[in-house]
Amino acid sequence: MARGEARARRDRGRGVHRPGARQVSVPASDRLVFSQTVEGLFLRALKERLTERLKDRLAKEAGIDLRAPLKPGYSLDSWDTAVTVAAEELHPKVELAVAFELLGAALTQGYFDTMVGSALAAMLRLIGPPRAIRRIERSLRSGNNYSQTSLTELSPSHFEIHTNETGRLRDNLRGVIRRGMEVAGARNVRCTVLRFDETNTVYDIEWDP
C-alpha cells in the first residue's frame, strides 16, 4: 500500500481531514490579506460606521487608505493593526477579544457582499454545514494567501479546527468561522478557542445536528 494511501486510511479512522493539496507554509513576513477582505469589513460591513477619525487612524497606523482605491493586498501586520483600530473605535467598552470576534462576524457578512464573497456564500448555502466545514481552508484562502487548516471530526456536527492563525487575530477568525457556518445553514453554532501557541490555534466548533 502506498504511504499516502495508508496515511489517508489512518486519518479517516481517527476522524482527521486534511486538505487535498497541502500548501507550503507562507512566512509571516510574506503573509497577505487580499483587498476583498478589507473591502468586506470596512467598505461593506462597517460602511455606515466609518468616521473620519477611523479613516485617519487606518491610514496613519495601518497603511490602509479607504479614501483611495484599495491595493491588491496588505501585509498581515497592517491587517492586524486595522482590526485593532476598528475594535478600539467601534467597540471600546468590551474586551478586545470580544471586539475582534464581533468584527470577524461582521467581516464574513460584509465579505459575502463582495463579488468574490457572494459566489462563496451561494456555494456554502448549497452544500450545507458538513461539507462547508471540510472546505474551510479553501474558503479562508479566498481572502488571504496563508491560511492552513486541518480538521478532527468528533461527530458529524462537532469538529476541532487546527489553524495557523496566531495572535489577536485568532479571535477575529473565531467570528469569521462562526458566521460562515451560520450562513451555510448551521444552527446554534458554538465556536471557542480550545488551545493555542505561537504558531497555531485550535478551535472547537459545534452546532445543533
Tell me what you see in this structure:
This protein has 209 residues and is α+β, with helices and mostly antiparallel strands. The chain has a single domain (30-208), classed as H-NOX domain (Alpha-Beta Complex). 50% of the residues lie in helices and 19% in strands. A hairpin with a 4-residue loop joins strand 6 (187-196) and strand 7. Helix 4 (76-90) packs across helix 5 (96-111) and helix 5 (96-111) packs across helix 9 (169-183). The longest helix is centred in the middle third of the chain and has 16 residues, at 96-111. Mean pLDDT is 92; it is low at 1-14 and 18-22.
Top CATH class: Alpha Beta
Q: How many domains is the backbone divided into?
A: 1
The CATH homologous superfamily is named H-NOX domain
Q: Tell me, what's the shape?
A: globular
Content of β-strand: 15-25%
Q: Structural class from helices and strands?
A: alpha+beta
Regions with pLDDT < 50 over 5+ consecutive residues?
1-14, 18-22
Element pattern in H and E: HEEHHEHHHHHEEHEE
CATH architecture: Alpha-Beta Complex
Total of helices: 9
Pfam families: DUF2378 (PF09536)
Region (Disordered): 1-23
Protein name: TIGR02265 family protein
Biased composition (Basic residues): 9-20
